[in-house]
Design goal:
It is globular and about 40 Å long. The strands form two sheets. Strands 2, 4, 5, 6, 9, 10 and 11 form a seven-stranded mixed sheet that branches. The protein contains no helices and eleven strands. With about 120 residues, the protein is mainly β.
């Protein structure tokens, strides 16, 4: 079992930055890939970014590429999402995800964080 606890998020103006954190316990990130998804009101949950078990490879949705950066901590029990140049369309609840060796837009792990609201005002 894996427990994922998120922190960060909040309200920011367009063009601003936020950082999300996800702390994993139960099994280390060296076992699973980690990812971030988001869900806006009235929309389906969508893939944002993922990082490999080793931390050497990352993948991004086209909508955030060049603006968001996913990274893992040295202890391999933390994953971060640095969000720069935020846009109003980035407004959503963001979820940390784990539980598979690879996470993509089509492959979602079993374990989810509690969700964190990110609101970007125009």
């Amino acid at each position: 079992q894996v427990q994922l606890v998120q922190s960060g998020g909040g309200l920011v103006q367009a063009g601003g930055s936020l950082r999300l954190s996800c702390a994993a316990s139960g099994r280390t990130l060296s076992t699973y890939a980690m990812g971030w998804f988001r869900q806006a009101p009235g929309k389906e949950r969508e893939f944002v970014a993922a990082i490999s078990r080793s931390g050497s490879r990352s993948d991004y949705a086209d909508s955030v590429k060049g603006r968001f950066t996913i990274s893992s901590g040295n202890a391999k029990n933390m994953v971060y999402l640095q969000m720069n140049s935020l846009k109003p369309e980035d407004t959503a609840v963001y979820y940390c995800n784990a539980g598979l060796s690879t996470i993509t837009s089509e492959r979602r792990g079993t374990f989810w964080g509690q969700g964190t609201q990110v609101t970007v005002s125009s």
